[in-house]
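Re-running the complex after MR caught last week's input typo. The corrected sequence lines follow. Everything else is unchanged.
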Amino acid sequence: MKAAIPTNIHPGLLRSLQQFVGFTQSEYELFCTFLEVCHVKKKEIYLQPGKISHATAYVNKGCLRRYILDDHAKEIIVNFAIEDWWIGDLESFVHQTPTIYYIQALEDSELFLLTRSSFSALCEEIPKYKTFHDEKVQRNHYTTLKRLALAKSGTPEEKYLLLMKEQPQLFQRIPLHYIASYLGIEPESLSRLRKRLTEKPQKS
Amino acid sequence: MKAAIPTNIHPGLLRSLQQFVGFTQSEYELFCTFLEVCHVKKKEIYLQPGKISHATAYVNKGCLRRYILDDHAKEIIVNFAIEDWWIGDLESFVHQTPTIYYIQALEDSELFLLTRSSFSALCEEIPKYKTFHDEKVQRNHYTTLKRLALAKSGTPEEKYLLLMKEQPQLFQRIPLHYIASYLGIEPESLSRLRKRLTEKPQKS
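Corrected-run output:
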C-alpha cells in the first residue's frame, strides 16, 4: 500500500501550512519527507473498531466516510473527508487505544500518512507543526460543537439545506443514503424532501 | 464581580494539573495568581451572542448551561458545566470573534477566570499549561464527536439511560426540561419516558 510521495500533492496542503503557521518552502519540503503514501480502494475499510489508529491521514485524492454502528447495528456517519481534509481517529492515535470508528473509502483514495513516530519526529524538527495540528483540532472542535447543536435542533429540511449551502460538493459524489445517515434522517425521508423542494415553485 | 482567589479551591483543579502535565505545588501556586474570581448569580447570563469571550472559566462552584437559539428561537442546550469543569466559548476566546452561544448560571456560581492576557502570560511562564489546555480541547473534541454520533442515533430512551449512567449527578441539580433540551427531546416525552421506566417491573 505504501510508496514514495508523488508529485501530485494537492495545493491545499502547502497553502494551509503557510496560512496557519507560516511554513516556508524548505520546511514544507522537509515536512513532505515524513509522509507515507497509502492507497485505499473504493469500499475498502481503512480503520475499524478494535484497531489502533497508527497515523493521521491527509486525503490527497478520493473520499472517505467515518461511521459507528449503533446498538441496533445501524451505521451512523460522523463525517466525510474529501481532498484536502484530514481523517483518522485522533483519540486512538494519541492514546493508542482501540478506535470505536470505521473509516471506509467511498472512492479509490490516496492518503498521505503521518505515523506516530513521524508525527513526533516532525514536531521535534519543526515545532510549529504541533501548533498547526493543535489548531486544526481546535477548529474541528468548534465545528463539531456547532454540528452537535444543529443535530439536536432544526428540521430535516433545515439540516439538508444547510449542508447544500455549506458543502454542495458532497452531493456530487456521495450516495444519498450516506448523506441521509450523516444528516441523521431516513433515506426515504431525504428522497421525499428533495422531491418536495424540487417541485416547490421557485421564487424569482 | 471580581475578588481575590479564595482558599476554597476545588481539589480537582490541582489534581488534573498534576495528573496531565505534572504541575508541582509551586507551579500551581503561581498558576493561581493568574486567576480572577467571578461570581454569577442564578439565572444571570455570563455570556451572550455578539459578545466576545474574554476568558476561559473554571467552575469552582455552581452549575451553568451553554445554549444556542435555533431559527425558531428554541433553546438548544449544548452542554452543562458543574464544579471542576471548564466553560466558555473557545472559538470566540481564541479568535476574538463574537460568540454564538449563551452561557447562563443555573445556580449561584463561582468561576475562576483566565483572561486572554493572563492565559498568554501563564503559557509564557509555565509552558506546560499550554499543553494542558490543548489536551483539554482534544479530550473535549473526542467527547463531542461521540455525542454527535449519539445525537444522530439512539432512541430517546437510550440517550436518557446513557446520561443517567454517565452523569447521574446532573439529574440531582438540573431541571428536567433542561435535560430534555440537552438530550434533544421534548420535555413531555422525557416525563413520559421516566414514568414508563419507573413503572417497568425491575429485573431481580
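None of the earlier attempt is carried over here. Chain B touches chain A through 29 residues (CB under 8 Å). DSSP finds nine helices and nine strands in chain B.
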